[in-house]
Amino acid sequence: MIYFLTVNYYSTDWIAQLLASIEANVSFSYRFILVNNSPSELSVADLKRETVEIINSPDNLGFGGGCNLGLNWIYDRDPQGIVWLVNPDTTIAPNSSDRAATFFKDYPEISILGSLVYEPSGKVWFAGGQFQRETGAIVETKTLKRTKNVAYFPCDWVSGCSLLIHLKNFKTCPQFDPEFFIYYEDFDFCRRYAEKGHAIALSPEVQTIHHPSSIVNRNLYLKYKYSTYSYLLTMQRHASGFVLFVRLMRLLFHAIALLGFKPNVAIGKLEGIANFLTRSPQVS
After folding, report:
1. What are phi and psi of 161, to 5 degrees?
2. Three-class secondary structure of residue 178 per DSSP
């Protein structure tokens, strides 16, 4: 069975559209797991139906923490299932759900699968990710490969905007690192499991439509605070110490330069840097 999993934070209207796209395009048995990171948002209850399970978190656990609640719920009930993690502000493209339902039967070696993500305009938003450890470059491909008869392309990482997990390939429930409150948790998730031998790919036959910036740009200060912290944590975990130092200095000087004309962005970046430098290292 496929379990669609999304994390809500004051996004009920978007999730209603996502649900409508699933109901219009899915022709097989499924469950929709909604982790509610905003328990005071009472309108979420209106989304409840036979196929929808609502899990209320005690607090806003961030994207990774919310995903873990849903993943644990699913894994406890069906450790052989397929989880399709989707952002609230996405919709499932026609015919993609049927291909997703058969993909892992045809290619059981793949553990984590990304979908091709379009913007509403038809422009490609995400078509795979690569990582260059020597420079710390995290590269997003935005050009669709035109090779015929290729079901998937190997990737270093795929976007959590639309990410499928083949639970059967995991001995224990896969988890996001909750230290990433938001941003780069998908990259970290992919790289950690790739290092354990799991294959990561993107299928152009599985497609979603994403409305970029519809949620995350509500508060620029918080956006840059969390993204800066998570970026530095990513460099520390997956690049060299030299790369981390260079990237940190570049962020610091850029934030200072922005103080005069983009104070919300600058202060968010500076607080993210400060939080990273004063953090207590987590024990894995």
Report:
1. -60, -35
2. coil
Per-residue pLDDT of the chain (284 residues; tens, 9 = 90+): 899 999 999 999 999 999 999 998 887 889 999 999 998 888 888 999 999 999 999 889 999 999 999 999 999 999 999 999 999 999 998 888 888 989 999 999 999 999 999 999 999 999 999 999 999 999 998 887 665 678 899 999 999 999 999 999 999 999 999 999 999 999 999 999 999 999 999 999 999 999 876 555 567 899 999 999 999 999 999 999 999 999 999 999 999 999 998 999 999 999 999 999 998 765 44
d(CA 206, CA 201): 11
Helix (H, G, I), strand (E, B) or coil at 199: strand
Q: Which 3 state secondary structure label does DSSP give 113?
A: strand
Strands (E) across 122-266 are located at 124-126, 129-132, 137-140, 153-154, 162-166, 199-210
How big is the CA angle at 244 (ends 242 and 249), to the nearest 5 degrees? 100
- Predicted TM-score (pTM) of this structure: 0.93
30-36 and 2-8 as β-strands: parallel, antiparallel, unpaired?
parallel
Nearest residue to 117 (alpha-carbon basis) of 149, 160, 82, 147? 160
Nearest to 231 by CA among 248, 249, 256, 212: 248
